[in-house]
Structure formats: C-alpha cells, structure tokens
Specification:
Layout (H helix, E strand, L loop, with lengths): L15 H6 L5 H20 L7 H30 L1
C-alpha cells in the first residue's frame, strides 16, 4: 500500500525518513495514534475468547518497570547520602 498507510514494521530502512515526515505530530494526531495502539493491544491480548493472563501480565510488568525507572534515581541518591 501507500507509504503513509503502512505500519512501522513494514517500512524499509531507506523509507523511514519519508514515512516519519508523513506522520501527524499534532496533539490530535498523537492522541489518535495512542488510541489506535491501545485498541490494537486490547483486541489482541485482552478482549479474546481463549485468552490467558498474557495481556494483563504485560501491562503489570510494564507498570512495574516504569515505576522502578521513575524511582531508581531517588533510591540511588538515598544510598549515596546514607553510606558516603
């Protein structure tokens, strides 16, 4: 299909710059992209008939990793003051 309609995984490396320049980076365009990604994720991993715990566990793992990365600098500074 046309380059702007292709998903990122189908774009060749040489076409990446052109593909990025066709993306809509306005707040409305970014919100639409996030909604499309969430709907795709929800349909594939959460809203399935014979689904397992994969979808929910991926969300929880992502949250744990994000939370750890937010708090890591705080913990690192605390240890530095405590021992040195």
């Amino acid at each position: 299909g046309p380059l702007p309609e292709r998903p990122l995984m189908e774009v060749r490396l040489g076409e990446l710059h052109t593909w990025i320049s066709t993306c809509d980076f306005s707040p409305q365009g970014l919100l639409g992209t996030v909604q499309k990604a969430w709907n795709s994720y929800y349909a594939k991993y959460i809203n399935v008939r014979k689904g397992g715990p994969a979808g929910i566990s991926m969300l929880l793992t992502g949250y744990c990793l994000l939370s750890y990365s937010w708090n890591y600098q705080h913990l690192k500074r605390y240890r530095w003051r405590k021992y040195h």
